[in-house]
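Page 42, continued from yesterday. The earlier attempt failed because a stray header line got pasted into the input along with the sequence. Redoing it now with the clean sequence only.
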Amino acid sequence: MARVNPGEFFRQVRAETGKVVWPTRRETLMTGLMVVIMTSLLGLFFFGVDSAFSALVRGLLSLLS
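This time it went through. Structure tokens are written below.
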């Protein structure tokens, strides 16, 4: 790998950063909203699965006593 001096490195970083296509405000808000919705749905799903397994284990343990 070729060594580059710090000045050249920062010029390359600036050039590459100029190529970045930043999301619009609307895209950012929509993506954030989707993240909140999906994490809420997954939280509810795993809460349900955990509750079902908890009830199953409690039921099986009650058979032993």
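Notes: The chain has a mean pLDDT of 94.
Reminder to self: strip header lines before submitting.
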